[in-house]
Design a protein that fits this description.
Elements (H helix, E strand, L loop, with lengths): L1 E3 L3 E3 L8 E3 L15 E3 L2 E3 L3 E3 L8 H9 L3 E5 L11 H8 L4 H11 L6 H13 L5 E4 L1 H14 L3 E5 L17 H7 L4 E6 L2 H9 L4 E4 L9 H5 L5 H18 L6 E5 L5 H10 L3 E4 L1 H4 L9 E3 L2 E7 L4 H4 L30 E5 L4 H19 L4 H7 L2 E3 L2 H6 L17
Parallel strand pairs: 6-7, 6-13, 7-8, 8-9, 9-10, 10-11, 11-12, 12-13
Antiparallel strand pairs: 1-2, 3-17, 4-5, 14-15, 15-16
Helix pairs in contact: 1-4, 4-5, 7-9, 10-13
Length: 416
């Protein structure tokens, strides 16, 4: 704890760029590294969860992610549950346009209501492929479609907002009582985001099978700049891991899984998240540029890109005629009547084209395997125990990247 003036104290917060993993004196053969992790009755071969965002996830992407050993979470409030064929909608979103035109297009496209039959159909499509099935809703939509999701037979249900509290105070009568909902819902529920010890402990006591850790660190987030609120990811994961450790003892052995959600830009960040205490990571921007992700390629100055839109962007939060917004309730602005009164917490943009999902996943998993080789850990729990951080300076961060050289060809797992 550090003194901050005469009346305030501040803890020190570390991002993934502020720390590095120290190599151990004993290495581990890569063939002995086991990346499997298990939640409830399902075992995954790779600790990667694809984020439930329209610019990242489609049923086909979720199926491919499942075949590669990870978990794809479908956004049940997105285009895939509003349109039988959302391809024309994605084509409209990739057409070049100014901010006003883009926002107007989004308003028109998301004015189409969510259809229960499409939720069931999309989840059934993933189930038929023989991979784990997961869908996500914001807290405001959870009760409305809970019965539909339960009938669809998902393996996991994700309640994902900018922050999810077990004790949200609201005068509205339909406020989600998380503890009661999880108790009666016959599927493991993953809840987030959260970023502090106390908030995580409340979610664990409410019965969450997994907790999404992260607040303000995503690629499109402007939360820290606009609101001044953020907990850097390395510290957030470590704090929530402490909460899990205490809850494990308090509950007599109930283990809650931690999913680091945000600020994971490279395979090294996955390793850092796991050393800090996460069981897996949720990634969005890294996958948005893959072939399997929805949307068309666009060329800008001779390079290929795909669209990527934050759920807190103005376009995502804007009203859809009488239907309202599909994301502003996630940012506790559901009662804001006019779009010009919204306070966005994200942006829209383009991400570089990355190629097939399988190739991207291979590099991410390969980087993690190599990291575990250097730390001498053979499993994720061993990485929790054996991994050690060192704090790095600005000069150390510069050393962490190629320097004193003009890069002429990018590696498949690194770009400037």
């Amino acid at each position: 704890m550090y003194e901050f003036g005469r009346s305030k104290n501040a803890t020190r917060g570390y991002s993934f760029d502020d720390v590095a993993i120290a190599p151990a004196r004993r290495t581990r053969s890569e063939s002995e590294v086991d990346l499997r992790w298990r939640i409830d009755a399902v075992t995954f071969d790779a600790p990667i969860v694809a984020a439930p965002m329209d610019s990242v996830m489609s049923p086909a992407t979720a199926i491919e992610m499942g075949r590669l050993g990870g978990l794809g979470v479908l956004n049940l409030e997105g285009l895939w549950t509003r349109y039988e064929d959302p391809s024309p909608a994605y084509e409209q979103l990739t057409e070049p346009a100014d901010q006003v035109t883009t926002t107007r297009r989004l308003q028109q496209l998301y004015a189409e209501p969510i259809k229960a039959e499409l939720i069931e159909a999309r989840l059934a499509e993933i189930r038929a492929a023989g991979v784990p099935v997961a869908g996500a809703l914001s807290p405001a939509r959870t009760q409305q479609f809970a019965d539909v999701i339960e009938r669809a037979g998902v393996d996991f249900f994700v309640i994902r907002g900018t922050t999810v509290s077990a004790e949200h105070v609201d005068e509205a009568e339909n406020t989600l009582n998380l503890k009661e909902f999880i108790y009666r819902f016959d599927v493991p529920v993953l809840v987030g985001g959260c970023a502090t010890y106390r908030m995580a402990l409340h979610l664990m006591r409410a019965g969450a099978a997994g907790v999404l850790v992260g607040f303000g660190g995503g690629a499109t987030h402007t939360t820290a700049s606009v609101l001044g609120i953020e907990v850097p990811m390395a510290s957030a994961v470590a704090d929530v891991a402490e909460a899990r450790r205490d809850y494990l003892e308090e509950s007599g052995g109930r283990y809650v899984h931690l999913i680091a959600d945000g600020a994971v830009g490279r395979s090294g960040d996955i390793a850092k998240a796991l050393v800090a205490g996460a069981d897996t990571v949720m990634i969005g921007s890294l996958l948005a540029g893959c072939d399997e992700s929805p949307g068309d390629l666009v060329f800008i100055n001779g390079k290929q890109f795909k669209s990527y839109r934050g759920m807190g962007s103005l376009g995502a939060m804007a009203a859809r005629g009488r239907k309202g917004s599909y994301s502003k309730d996630r940012y506790f602005q559901a009662d804001v009547a006019s779009d010009d009164k919204l306070v966005p917490e994200g942006i829209e943009g383009k991400v570089a084209y990355r190629g097939p999902l399988a190739a991207v996943a291979y590099q991410l998993v390969g980087g993690l395997r190599q990291s575990m080789f250097y730390t001498g850990a053979s499993t994720i729990p061993e990485l929790h125990e054996r991994g050690r951080f060192v704090r790095i300076t600005a000069s150390g961060l510069r050393e962490s990247h190629p320097h004193d050289i003009q890069m002429t060809m990018e590696a498949p797992n690194y770009s400037s």
